[in-house]
Design a protein that fits this description.
Strand content: 15-25%
Strand order of the largest sheet: 4-5-3-6
Number of helices: 4
Distance between the termini: 42 Å
CATH superfamily: Transposase IS200-like
Largest sheet: 4 strands, antiparallel
Helix content: 25-40%
CATH class: Alpha Beta
Amino acid sequence: MAINKSWHCAYEIHYHIVFPVKYLRALLRPEIEAELVRIAGEIQERYEIEFEQMGADRDHIHLLCSAHPKVSIGRIVRTFKSITAIELFKTFPALQDELWGGEFWSDGYYVATVGERNNWETVARYVKNQGHQPVTTLRRFAQLSLPDL
């Protein structure tokens, strides 16, 4: 990954975004995942968003993406969710029967910034392997505490 340059700034911003399917329905089958990748390519061409990695479990999707600093995280999520939902319902009309109310994605999302020099590769590998390997162990971290004053 290289530093991106624009007229008035140079930036290196990566986001790990996760959002679930409405009602946590297990709808992200391989054919739907393939369609999401195709749609993401079209979104990437039109908007200032670069999708670096995508991965999905049956009921949620992980995105590793980059965007110009003027593009808010909310705008990235809103753009991806709205366009993919519309296109998926056009391509797979039966999806609307599995969801009440005609929405494909849940309202909420998780986002974290990813540093390129320390954990970008780890997160990219994690996102890519979604749905392919069962998680066997979870690392627990001790909660940080404030120093005594």
